[in-house]
Design goal:
The chain has 18 helices and no strands. By secondary structure, it is mostly helical. It has a single domain, classed as MFS general substrate transporter like domains (Growth Hormone, Chain: A, Up-down Bundle), CATH 1.20.1250.20. The termini are far apart. This is MFS general substrate transporter.
């Protein structure tokens, strides 16, 4: 009697449940770690204002001339210069190696800032901080955008960005707490801020070495089947699941695309208020009449609002509200597959916030402006990162565009302290007005790109053009 034929095993079919579990696994591996890394970067670069308020100003004479503005701006010069080379090197040398080395290196510099004897030495450390932080943010954004479909990416970028936003909101409290170590070991309180935060950054660099996820095609935490699912989803969505080799011709072609520079201008405009609030919120609060401790913590400050109610405020609420706002609007943007409408909404919120803080006399309304301004600018940054990444194909163009975009954000970091001048303290009206004008420019450029995308999509549907060299590709707006 012949043996019964052995049945072939069933084909491995990816179910919706398998897909959800895979995406959840990717989320848990990427977003907390990458968000924490950027949070460390935000805290390390923005603690200058906190240290100044708690004693560094007097110790190093930062109020003389333009010293403080120089210190805030000098960070961004190497930060801008090294963005593009760093992003292009991610594939060549390995994203895990570059990111972990960068985090370790800037942690050492941050630690050293606690021992500087003069403001010149501090300026050198700030410049080195810019060198080592240059490739981190665009590299992290690039990694995130390679893992997800176009209408899944903004909520992930929002979570990533919000983690840094929340930690950034607590940076004033953290800085104030560390400054209470004043005199321990013969070290000033402001110096302890840099020393302790530098130690945590170094620890973050070590953690990055072991756990950084990398790009989808080179990851080591998914099964082969899960990796194939991720790559297939990306290929179906935009046709660039596999990396392409960067060449001089491609590099020039990418830079010659006018849309890249439109994204960059909008991103610059969005980052100016973010940096303005980040660097000058404690100084603006002091200008409203609050003490050093109150400007950092805002504990039990009486603020009279139109209803004559009194609130006990803290410095973190604007950032907490912003975090909720950014995640909610990003989720809606992905759900309804709309980018420009939500970016415009965020920009209008920013204008309202800046106007309240700059021009309204009542302290309650002026402080309320921080809520609108910080939420709007943060939401706009997340939206623009998604808007630009959604309308790009190929890894090489994604690397170039992300680096140029974030470089223009660095220019915003130079621009903000240059228009928020010491001579304009306490209200900084010229800086506030200039920042509002930037938001108007953002709206105009957004309208131009959106109209262009709409017209090009109509042509593509009629078969008249192929967009981004990818048949079937349509712009998202």
């Amino acid at each position: 009697m012949s043996e019964a034929p052995v049945e072939a095993p069933p084909l491995c079919v990816d179910t919706p449940e398998f897909e959800r579990k895979t995406i959840r696994r990717v989320d848990l591996r990427l977003l907390p770690l990458l968000g924490a890394l950027y949070a460390i970067a935000v805290i390390d670069r923005s603690n200058l204002g906190i240290a100044r308020v708690v004693g560094m100003d007097k110790a190093l004479g930062l109020s003389l001339g333009s010293r403080y503005s120089i210190l805030t701006a000098i960070y961004f010069i190497p930060y801008i210069i090294f963005q593009l080379p760093s992003n292009l090197a991610l594939r060549a040398f390995g994203v895990r190696y570059i990111v972990s080395f960068s985090v370790l290196a800037w942690g050492v510099v941050q630690f050293a800032m606690g021992f500087v004897p003069t403001w010149i030495h501090l300026a050198v450390c700030r410049a080195l901080l810019g060198v080592f932080e240059a490739g981190v943010f665009p590299g992290l954004v690039l990694v995130i955008t390679t893992w997800y479909k176009r209408h899944e990416v903004q909520q992930r970028l929002a979570v990533f960005y919000v983690i840094s936003l929340v930690f950034g909101g607590f940076s004033a409290i953290i800085g104030y707490a560390l400054s209470l170590l004043n005199g321990r070991g013969g070290i000033d309180g402001w110096a302890w801020i840099f020393i302790i935060e530098g130690i945590f950054t170094i620890a973050g660099g070590i953690l990055t070495w072991f756990y950084f996820p990398g790009f989808p095609d080179e990851n080591n935490f998914l099964t082969p089947r899960q990796t194939k699912l991720i790559l297939d989803r990306i290929q179906e969505d935009r046709g660039d699941s596999e990396p392409d080799r960067i060449t001089v011709r491609k590099f020039v072609r990418h830079l010659s695309d006018w849309k890249l520079w439109a994204y960059a201008i909008m991103y610059f405009c969005a980052t100016v208020p973010a940096y303005a609030f980040g660097y000058f919120i404690t100084l603006i609060l002091r200008g409203m009449g609050w003490s050093v401790t109150a400007s950092l913590l805002l504990v039990r400050i009486l603020v009279f609002v139109p209803s004559s109610l009194t609130f006990a405020l803290q410095s973190t609420p604007p950032y907490i509200v912003s975090a909720i706002w950014v995640v909610a609007t990003s989720w809606l943007s992905d759900k309804y597959q709309q980018r420009a409408v939500f970016i415009a909404l965020q920009t209008i919120c920013t204008i309202i916030g800046l106007s309240l803080t700059a021009y309204v006399r009542q302290l309650g309304w002026r402080y309320g402006g921080f809520f609108f301004g910080i939420a709007g600018s943060a939401g706009c940054i997340a939206g623009l990162l998604a808007y630009s990444s959604n309308n790009i194909t190929s890894h090489s163009k994604r690397a170039v565009t992300t680096a140029v975009l974030v470089s223009f954000g660095g220019i915003g970091g130079i621009f903000a302290p240059s228009v928020f001048r010491q001579v304009d303290f306490p209200r900084y009206l010229p800086g506030m007005f200039t920042t509002i004008i930037c938001q108007v420019v953002l709206l105009v450029v957004l309208a131009i790109t959106t109209l262009y995308f709409w017209t090009q999509n109509q042509k593509a549907r009629r078969g008249e053009v192929i967009l981004e060299g990818q048949p079937g590709f349509l712009y998202t707006y």
